[in-house]
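In response to reviewer comment 3 from the previous cycle, which asked for concrete evidence that the modeling workflow produces usable outputs, we include below a single protein chain processed end to end. The sequence was submitted unchanged, and the resulting structure tokens are shown without manual editing.
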Amino acid sequence: MNTKLLEVMATESITCFKRGDIENATELYFLILDNIQDQLKSSLEDPYFLAKLIRDSNSSDKLRSTQAMMLLSYFNKRNLLPTDIKDLLP
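The workflow returned the following structure tokens.
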């Protein structure tokens, strides 16, 4: 997949989120992540990355917290999260 298409999908995902269309925002976000999943897997081995994701999911910034929750949800749905982290998710 080319980077320009990924950029357009990311922009559209944010646009959907801003207008309250969370379902389509999430689907677009998951499509992007499916295309870069191999690059993301190494991040899951970094406890600081996971701690930041969990911290961001509790942010008062709605966009930041929603994106962190969507990323955590993606990792969880694709069975990529370490078991001990799964137990910490809401």
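The helical segments are 3-18, 22-35, 37-41, 47-57, 62-77, 83-86. We consider this sufficient to address the reviewer's concern, and the full set will be provided in the supplementary archive.
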